[in-house]
Amino acid sequence: MTLLIKSIDDLARQKFDVLVPTMGALHAGHQSLIKLARQRSDRVLVSIFINPLQFENKDDLAKYPKTLEADLKLAEAAGATAVFVPSYEDIYPGEINRIEAGEIGDLYEGASRDGHFSGVLTVVKRLFDLTKPKIAIFCEKDFQQLFLIKQMVKELNIPIEIVAAPIIREIDGLAMSSRNVRLDIAGRKSALIISQALKENTIEDMHAVLATEPAFTLDYLEIIDEDTFLPASENSKNKRAIIAGWVNGVRLLDNRRMGAAL
Ligand code: PAF
């Protein structure tokens, strides 16, 4: 039976090895992170907290799906030992010491979403401080977030291993995301253009594929160097194509390591 932890006092009485931080609205993608966590330990904590600090758009925050009952069942089915559902006051008890995301935090997602990564790093650091895991698992779908969390852990000397989990896709290629439920049938079909574009081998061909879908509005498309998160050069060891945009006002992002299968 998965334990539900609702306060930091209850949390303090428990010990967990692996943390899987989430904002709820769990799906098979989150379940894959929990299953990966279970391969490392049987003391796996899933946190569910919709972090207002990382939503620059209040409408996006208001529309973020809230499905706690279903989340608890999905977390349990995937093997979570406990689910921590803190209150706002648990996470932000007083004045908020924001963690800045630096120059890379202002690029791509950060350029479109002012303060987003500072909000992410601030909550992740607070969750780390509260839960003190040995390992924390994040999905590669939010690749810039993963990069910045790894950077924060290194800079602040946080003794936590950050594990990257692969993107889980629907059978037709759409990257799983809590936001997908906001797409209607036509929007869901249009959203497939992103994973289709990612199958191409050049940025020009990716642009060409994206341009065929009138319902998709591109925010950015870039091939970045995974070590620096800056545009890739000939010398880049690992290159990754990153795409973000909107379908019917729903923000979608996806990425693929160049040369790897989708
Ligand atoms: O990726 C997410 O779901 C969130 O950004 C995270 C890491 C749980 C922080 O709120």
Features:
262 residues, 11 helices, six-stranded parallel β-sheet, binds pantoate, 9 strands, three-stranded antiparallel β-sheet, alpha/beta
User: Strand fraction band?
Assistant: 15-25%
Structural class: alpha/beta
Q: Which hetero compounds are present in the coordinates?
A: pantoate
Instruction: Indicate the mean pLDDT.
Output: 97
- Name the shape in a single word: globular
Helix content: 25-40%
Helical run tally:
11
What is the count of β-strands?
9
Element-level helix/strand string: EHEHEHHEHHHEHEHHHEEE
Strand order of the largest sheet: 1-4-3-2-5-6
What are the segments in which pLDDT stays under 50 over at least 5 consecutive residues? none
**Major sheet details:** 6 strands, parallel
Cα(first) to Cα(last) distance is 35 Å
Give structural notes:
By secondary structure, the chain is α/β, with parallel strands linked by helices. The chain has helices spanning 8-12, 28-40, 58-63, 68-78, 88-91, 109-112, 116-131, 143-155, 185-190, 192-198, 203-210, and strands spanning 3-5, 18-22, 44-48, 82-84, 135-139, 161-165, 216-225, 239-247, 250-257. The strands form 2 sheets. A 6-stranded parallel sheet has the order 1-4-3-2-5-6, with helices on both faces. A 3-stranded antiparallel sheet has the order 7-8-9. The protein binds pantoate (PAF). Residues 21-23, 51, 54, 120, 123-124, 142, 145 line the site of pantoate.
